[in-house]
Amino acid sequence: MKKAAHKVFHHKAGNKSIGKHRNHHRVTCNVCGLENFQVDRYKCLICVNYNVCAQCFEKRLQSEQHSTGHTMVHFKVPDELFGRKIKSKDEITIKTMEHLYGKEQHEDIACDSCIIQSISGLRFKCDTCPNFNLCQMCAIKNTTNEKHKPDHPLILVSHEIIQKLNKKDIELGDPLGQGAFGTVYKAKWSSKTGRREVACKVLHIPAGIDSLKLEKSFLRELSAYAEVDGAYILKLFGYSTFQNENSSTSYYLITEYMTKGSLTNLIYNQQQHERVSLRQKLCIACNIATGMRKIHDHSLIHRDLRPDNILVTDNYLTKIGDMGLARVLDEYLDHTQIGCKRYMPPEFYDTGMYDQKLDIFTFGLSISELFTETQHHFKENRIQIKKSSPIFSDLIDRCLEDDPRYRPTAMEIEATLNLYLNEFDSKNSTSSNYSTLSLDEQNKLFCQFYDEYHSEAVQIIAKQYPPVKRLSMYRLSAEKSHDDKSKTKCKCCIQ
């Protein structure tokens, strides 16, 4: 039943198969059957002509032919890989990848199996384990260890994680918005396969700052976050940097263009005919939760997860943006410039020390705002919810616990939200009535389902994530965090 629900609602929530557009991969997903999809494409290097759309990839769906642990190639742009045009389907094999990229040198990146200090040739990274890399030989053998399992996907990566672009290939258009770190423009980018509509975030760093040091720090931090990609993380295509006449430094960050803009825009600027149902809002919350869980799986913290930094496509696929910017730029900009204070948890102000549970707090505020279309009150470094959400109010309350130890993990949040979504879809996928209902009727139906299913769902989640397990998972995530104490303090708290 749930498989059928996935088939019915998957097309509505994530992809539009609209002809052979430049932004569409001209293949069929071998898992869900979607043709000419727009989300990222994963091509298996072992199975013949086996392609997976990003949403099926994130769900780790496989078949008798294909195992999730196979080596794969990730296409962010149709027919283009690592800045090279890949036109024929026949070119995407392990042999052709070796021919094209077999001479690459991955300096200071060791194979975590055979302990080669610097991988030469093809390099594969695990999409599940943080900072786990294999050379070609070990990847083909599907080498495993205590943490890396045989079903973990292995993705081919380039020695140049973030592509440096020519400024001449980027044409700025109208401004889309201004944030804490700069202005975002709609832009055109001349890639290897043609001109593409993109977004360009322009960052200006004042004169007097060591631009070379900043660029190294900037790339190091963004590279760490760039390796955490997927269906619900905003795609970063590349960057450009240049000196201005006044000796200041400017950066262009080229990302995918999200047609509906930020989640803030969706919440507050929607027209009457564009109002979003509670079920669709739950889909959006699921997307954010999965993106956040993936960030946390790699021992990273987003630091600025809020509606302004969550972007939405025209079919409501939702992605987390501004990866890594909060950390790297906080070293160079006055912390008061960062526009996230009203979303920060108590520990941010009380001790200046924080971990991944900061993201859980800001996530709770974000989905509260999403479900109620009302922003919280902020005064004297404390928040107050103005309007209680009709659904998931208890989950939101747990996310907003003052003591971070009692906030849920991203994994538990993802499991909770998907549990409700899958159950609702399984009960309504066989009915043709849902799509014909008015928005108010759809919301009434969903609230009725939520109230009837809530007690059962709470028990299911409590068995999977009992309080003792929650605290042990919190301690484990705190221990493996890659941040040292100075870097988990905000700038104004470091003495």
UniProtKB/TrEMBL annotation:
Matching InterPro entries, A to Z? Kinase-like_dom_sf, Prot_kinase_dom, Protein_kinase_ATP_BS, Ser-Thr/Tyr_kinase_cat_dom, Ser/Thr_Kinases-Pseudokinases, Tyr_kinase_AS, Tyr_kinase_cat_dom, Znf_ZZ
Q: Which domain of life is it from?
A: Eukaryota
- Keyword tags: ATP-binding, Metal-binding, Nucleotide-binding, Zinc, Zinc-finger
Which positions does UniProt annotate for ATP binding?
A: 201
Q: Which SMART domains match?
A: TyrKc, ZnF_ZZ
What does UniProt give as the signal peptide span? Answer: none
Domain named ZZ-type: residues: 24-80, 106-162
Gene3D superfamilies recorded for this chain? 3.30.60.90, Transferase(Phosphotransferase) domain 1
Please list the residue ranges annotated as the Protein kinase domain: 170-421
One MF term in the entry's GO annotations: zinc ion binding
The name this protein goes by in its record:
Uncharacterized protein
- Source organism per entry reads Rotaria magnacalcarata
